[in-house]
Amino acid sequence: MVNESVRRLQSFVDGAYIDGVSSWEKRSPVDGSLVAVVEEAGAEQVDAAVAAARRALEGPWGRSSVAERAALMRRIADRIEARFDDFVAAEIGDTGKPLKQARELDVARAVVNFRSFADTVSATGLDSFLTELADGRRALNYAVPRPLGVVAVVVPWNLPLLLLTWKVAPALACGNAVIVKPSEETPSTATLLAEVIAEAGAPAGIYNVLHGFGPGSAGEMLTTHPDIDGVTFTGESATGAAIMRGVAPYVRPVSFELGGKNAALVFADADLEKAVAGLGRSIFTNTGQVCLCTERVYIQRPVYDEVVAGLVEHARGLRLGRPEAEGTTTGPLISREHRAKVHGYLDLAREDGADVLVGGGIPDLGADLADGAWIEPTLWAGLDHSSRVLREEVFGPVAALMPFDSEDEAVKLANDSRYGLAAATWTSDLERGHRVAQQMRVGMSWVNTWYLRDLRSPFGGVGLSGIGREGGTHSMHFYTEPTNVCVQL
Ligand SMILES: NC(=O)C1=CN([C@@H]2O[C@H](COP(=O)(O)OP(=O)(O)OC[C@H]3O[C@@H](n4cnc5c(N)ncnc54)[C@H](O)[C@@H]3O)[C@@H](O)[C@H]2O)C=CC1
Ligand SMILES: O=C(O)/C=C/C=C(\O)C(=O)O
């Protein structure tokens, strides 16, 4: 039985909430309590969303000016700010993440995403060339960006609103219509955003939300729909591969930000206090559920023991608890299913001979939280580089610590991965910092910091970590198709 006070979440198509074909119960990873009943969209709702988005593009929205669209982005940002606490509550309800993080990272970044892409679209000029041929003819070439069209936005559960708005803001700023498929684990903020975008004066049909799952459900139905024009996706690499297969018959562009198995390198000359604090953040933020999180830490041998001791102390100082509780630093994993996956790696690490320095199991947080998806922050030493624990993305609050001797060895170990998303180098030798950072085979290479973002810079990965870059003008390129005009003068 569903308590009457429990929210029902519906898909949002053509400016209105619509019924689904079935429903599921979204439960809190904090204590297993019921958060919402979510209606699953079926093929009919997917068709309706694609048709609504297409109609919107054919209407006034398709002729809107950059200035009008930038103004709308700013009004949406203002409306999110006006309902900041509602977004924070919705995000916490779905994920169990600490209140402070939801406020300072997730929802704050949603506001910045809209403002930043309002700025970028306003400042982006045209590519143009004055062409002078050998025979004396002259021409003006200029490329006019047209919207990509109907864009499918498929996003995961780890930073739900942040990652959703990171794609929706530039897509709308460029004049597209979007159909969002939020994760089945985090349906709330995408639904609330529909209300806010409508309140900000957006035309019906430019922002649609379909609730559902991946294979055989709304995710697959949307990304294999013949009338979408492109897919932007963040999530697991295997899911990216499945989406690629789905769009292949229609030859649609994709932008993928996928998994990571990110390395950090700590050199003996680093400021160790800062390095340990930075590593603590890069391993454990969001319970390790950020694609950028560090899961492999290489430490130069002379400072190995000191860094290991510092990290163990940091992990022991983390406070697992309810999002709103004073002092909570760390929430649960997103679900029991995901915990089973992470727990599988804890078992595997032991089988592969890891020395478990801290954590390694499921914590006892009392009867109140017994039905949640809690896991202990865990650090390992002594793992061989060939262990699957060091090759596969765990996506939990875990890292393996390993010593190295030379810079060349550290670079080689860090790059020994099929993933290539992010890296962090800790050193007080600036030359080394630049040298090592540039050798990392990744999309984002930080020096003496981690997850410091400038939204104008390219964001994405190489290898199994993705295809393409988003951010600033890189987003503009993905969400538009240029038409080159050549006028003989
Ligand atoms: N690197 C990253 O950013 C993330 C990695 N993960 C990893 O992925 C694992 C699986 O978690 P999931 O939530 O299942 O992530 P996922 O990557 O499979 O799901 C992300 C989104 O894709 C949708 N989806 C799944 N299969 C699809 C398909 N065939 N076609 C279209 N859409 C599809 C999902 O419904 C969700 O909205 C996690 O255990 C975690 O390790 C999960 C979330 C983010
Ligand atoms: O800051 C961003 O734009 C994105 C951060 C994190 C991810 O992309 C992720 O965890 O997938």
Describe the structure.
Its EC number is 1.2.1.85. This is 2-hydroxymuconic semialdehyde dehydrogenase. Keywords: NAD, Oxidoreductase. The chain is α/β, with parallel strands linked by helices and 489 residues long. The chain folds into two domains: 8-258 and 465-488, Aldehyde Dehydrogenase, Chain A, domain 1, CATH 3.40.605.10; 262-453, Aldehyde Dehydrogenase, Chain A, domain 2 (3-Layer(aba) Sandwich), CATH 3.40.309. The protein has helices spanning 43-58, 66-82, 84-95, 99-123, 160-173, 188-199, 218-223, 237-247, 272-284, 304-316, 336-351, 388-391, 407-415, 430-439, 472-478, and strands at 7-9, 11-13, 16-18, 22-27, 34-40, 127-132, 138-147, 150-154, 177-181, 207-209, 230-234, 254-257, 262-266, 294-300, 355-358, 378-381, 398-404, 419-420, 422-426, 444-447, 462-463, 466-467, 480-488. Strands 15-16-17-14-13-19-20 form a seven-stranded mixed β-sheet, sandwiched between helices. The chain has a six-stranded mixed β-sheet with strand order 10-9-8-11-12-22, with helices on both faces. Helix 3 (84-95) packs across helix 4, helix 3 (84-95) runs antiparallel to helix 6 and helix 9 packs across helix 10. The model has no long low-confidence stretch (mean pLDDT 97). 1,4-dihydronicotinamide adenine dinucleotide binds at residues 154-158, 181, 183-184, 213-215, 219-220, 223, 234-236, 239, 242-243, 258-259, 291, 338, 341, 393, 395.
